[in-house]
Design goal:
The complex is a heterodimer of chains A (96) and B (320). Chain A has 96 residues and is of the alpha+beta class. Helices cover 18% and strands 21% of the residues of chain A. Chain A has helices at residues 33-44, 69-73; strands at 9-15, 23-29, 52-57. Chain A has a three-stranded antiparallel beta sheet with strand order 2-1-3, with helices on one face. In chain A, a hairpin with a 7-residue loop joins strand 1 (9-15) and strand 2. By secondary structure, chain B is mostly helical. Chain B contains 13 helices and two strands. Chain B has helices at 5-20, 33-52, 54-58, 67-92, 98-107, 124-141, 150-178, 182-201, 213-218, 226-244, 269-279, 283-296, 298-319, and strands spanning 254-256, 261-263. In chain B, helix 2 (33-52) runs antiparallel to helix 4, helix 4 (67-92) packs antiparallel against helix 7 and helix 6 (124-141) packs antiparallel against helix 7. In chain B, 35% of the residues are buried. Classes of the chains: A alpha+beta (96), B mainly alpha (320).
């Protein structure tokens, strides 16, 4: 959806190398999806930085709120037993 | 979202503590309104500089002396466009819009770097811009890679990486002219004569007269004072000029054994303020050109929206 007269905003994600995940590179405006891809190529991969591009309308992203950060991530804070270092390894035991 | 006074005090204290610990601030984080405003001003001004900065160099693309120079210059000007776009995006994460920034540039409300209000009458100016102006810009920009605002810092990292080629191609051009005919060498010296002082002024007013410095330092937007960065640029550039066999147009310039830096003569701040306020050699021309490009492009922007609306309507019809 184009807002009043400007073009909608897209977020750009780029895979720099086979085997790596797409990573957020920045954002840009484009009239439609196809133009967003073409512009992303020109704006974010002028020096061979990418092998694959995703463009996503920014308003399609649902984000957590930074103000809820503590509440949201609190459940994981006291679960040290989820980490291997929580468990005892007797001396002499290898490859564990 | 409105907060009570107590909440605001708490949020402010947490913000200050985070910044002091070198933690980055991200777009949706709470931030003081003045911090947001300063960043919008600085980032959009920076973006405008990249966009207006395409003009003095674009002037020479069609007249570059060789294909090697032409592809280099073209790539550099394309980079400036890209840098403008990274920076506009970074500014937009703070809640301003592209349309607003465009409007502020065209109305003259927003500033851009005064350096781009000087003309480029000869090919040597293109070398001098790459060497001096990009050199000064890089000196200014490297510390901004560690700016407290995440999106600005990330954009700057990209920009600094790309700009090292800009400075090198400028220096190469100057070096070629300096090792050429006597007339070519004269061109190089003439360009240095015209660009030296404006480039020294690029770092802004002296520390005593700088409006935003202290707060920006505390907010980790700025890391070094204008005068510190200016000195860094002078020390680096004087040596490069020596290598080229060119004379810095300053009879007071001398090495200061005690400080370990070069001392320079008086900077003409009246000229600086005159250009900032709109009376430089090319202020009107630069804005008129930008306005014309914006107006000439209106039908393209409208057509692109009309096309995408039509495609979307077609898809809907298909789905129905």
């Amino acid at each position: 959806m184009s807002d009043d007269k400007g073009w909608p905003l897209y977020e750009v994600f780029i895979r720099s190398k086979q085997g790596l995940a797409h990573q957020h590179a920045g954002s840009l405006h484009a009239a439609d999806d196809k133009m967003a891809l073409e512009n992303a190529r020109d704006v974010y991969t002028r020096r061979g930085e990418g092998l694959s591009i995703w463009v996503v309308p920014s308003n399609a992203i649902t984000a957590s709120s930074p103000l809820d950060k503590d509440m949201l991530f609190d459940p994981a804070d006291d679960k040290v037993y989820r980490h291997p270092t929580f468990y005892d390894v007797p001396d002499g035991v290898e490859t564990l | 979202m409105s907060h009570s006074e107590n909440e605001l005090a708490e949020l402010g204290a947490a913000f200050d503590a985070n910044v002091a610990q070198e933690k980055k601030i991200e777009p949706k984080d709470w931030m003081p309104e003045a911090y947001r405003k300063t960043l919008v001003r600085q980032i959009s001004q920076h973006a405008h500089s990249e966009i207006i900065g395409m003009q003095p160099e674009g002037n020479w693309i069609s007249r570059a002396p060789t294909l090697r120079r032409k592809v280099g210059l073209l790539a550099k000007v394309q980079d400036e466009a890209g840098h403008g776009l990274y920076l506009y995006s970074a500014a937009e994460t703070l809640g301003t819009s592209r349309d607003q920034m465009d409007a502020d540039l065209l109305s003259g409300k927003a500033k851009y770097s005064s350096i781009f209000n000087y003309p480029t009458p000869t090919w040597a100016d293109i070398g001098a811009i790459g060497w001096l102006i990009d050199g000064a810009a890089i000196t200014n920009q490297i510390p901004i890679c560690r700016c407290s605002y995440g999106p600005y810092a990330r954009a700057m990292i990209r920009i600094c990486k790309e700009e090292s080629f800009h400075q090198r191609q400028g220096f190469e051009m100057m070096n070629t002219l300096c090792r050429g005919t006597a007339e070519q060498k004269r061109m190089a010296q003439d360009a240095l004569n015209r660009w030296w002082w404006p480039s020294v002024m690029m770092f802004g007013p002296p520390d005593g007269a700088s409006q935003h410095s202290d707060q920006n330092m505390a907010w980790r937007i700025k890391r070094f004072s204008n005068d510190e960065l200016r000195q860094r640029y002078i020390d680096m550039t004087v040596r490069q000029a020596d290598f080229l066999g060119l004379d810095i147009p300053d009879t007071d310039l001398k090495w200061n054994e005690e400080s370990g830096h070069y001392d320079i003569g008086e900077i003409d701040w009246d000229e600086f303020w005159k250009v900032v306020k709109g009376d430089g050699p090319c202020n009107r021309q630069r804005l008129a050109h930008r306005t014309k490009a914006h107006d000439d492009g209106a039908w393209v922007r409208e057509a692109a929206v009309a096309y995408s609306d039509k495609q979307r309507a077609k898809q809907r019809q298909h789905a129905a």
